[in-house]
Amino acid sequence: MSVRASHILxxxxxxxxxxxxxxxxxxxxxxxxxxKNSECPSRKKGGDLGKFNRGQMVPEFEKAVFAMKKGEIxxxxxxxxxxxxxxxxx
Length: 90
Fold this sequence. Notes:
Elements: E1 2-10, H1 13-25, H2 30-37, E2 48-53, H3 59-67, E3 77-79, E4 82-88
Antiparallel strand pairs: 1-2, 1-4, 3-4
């Protein structure tokens, strides 16, 4: 089974929670906030990571995204890269 997701990657937990608050107020701003804040090259595409299968992402990220429903936005997920806010898009 493959999923599709977007994410916003930041180094600091505090920054991740600030972005999450903005998303709770307006979930439609996800792509704009990714372009503005994310430290991942995917920011150019609004955070879109495309489709992927199990085993392609770091374990913490994978566990979170495969547990989500389409359209859901995660709490900050810590990995070796920093803190991710994930939106499952497919």
